[in-house]
Amino acid sequence: MQNIAIAIHGGAGTITKNTLTTTQEIAFNAALKQAVEAGHRLLAKGGTALDAVELAVTILEDEPLFNAGRGSVFTKAGKHEMDAALMCGKTMAAGAVAGVRGIKNPIKLTRAILEKSDNVMLSGYGAEEFAREHAIEFAPESYFYDAYRYQQWCEVRDTNLFLMDHTEQREQKFGTVGAVAVDSAGNVAAATSTGGMTNKNFNRIGDTPIIGAGTYANNATCAVSCTGHGEFFIRSVVAYDISCLIEYKGYTLQEACEEVVLNKLIKIGGEGGLIAVNPAGDIALTFNSEGMYRACKRNDEQTILGIYKN
Fold this sequence. Notes:
The chain is an alpha+beta fold.
C-alpha cells in the first residue's frame, strides 16, 4: 500500500520558549494543525500531492501569524513584496513568482504559471498582469496590514537594517511557509511562499522562488521546501543538493537533509531549516536554528506538531 504523507513549516530561527507566550504557542500550533490536516484530508480522499501542498500553503498565507500572504512583512518602501514557488515531482513542471504585490495568495498564482504558462518564473508587474489575465484574486493594501508587522518595520525603516522573522535576535529571523507531500500515486510536490525580509530594499529576492534553492520536487528522489537566510540557501542550492545526494550518492532522505543542513550550511554560516518527503512516504524535518514551526502527518498516524528544537 502506498503511503501518503504531508509536512509543513512556518519559518525557522531563534525560536525558544522565552520568545513565545503560552497564548502565542497555542495559536501557532492551532494554525499549523489546521493547515497540515487540511492537506492530509485531501490526500486521504485521493487528491494529488500538488493540490495538497497548494491548499496547505494557501491556509498558511491566510494566517497573519506567518510571513507570507496576508502576514507578509513591510519593505523599505512600506509595501509588501511576495515570492512563492510550486513544483510537481511527476512532471517536474514548476511555477514561481518574485516581488509581486497585492496578490492575495501568491501560491495560487504559481499554480497558474505552472499550468498555463511556458515560463517558470515571473516577477513584479509582469507577474501581476499575468495574474489579472487568469483571474487570480488581488487584495487591497489594508488586507496585508498587521500592527505587529508595522511595528517591526517602524523600528528600522529609517536605517539600512533588514529583519527576518521569528527570533529575539533581529538579524536572524527566517519567515517563510512551505509544504511537501506524497500522494496515493507516489507523486511528490513542494510549495513555498514568503513575504521576505522586513525593510528589504532594491527588490531583494530570496531562495523561495528559485527552483533548486528553496523549492524542489522530483519523483526520483524527494520534495523539499526551505526556510532560512535565503542568500545562503541560494549559494548552496540546498533543495537540489539534497535531491542529488539521494540520486547520485545513495543517501537516505534523512541523511541527505542532515548533510546539507547540519554540515554544509553551518560551514558557510547558513541558518535555517527545511522539510522534505520522498515517494516512500518518509518525512524529514531538519533545521540548525533554535526552532522551526513545523507539522506533519503520515497515513492514519497522529499529527505531529513542533516549534522548538527538542
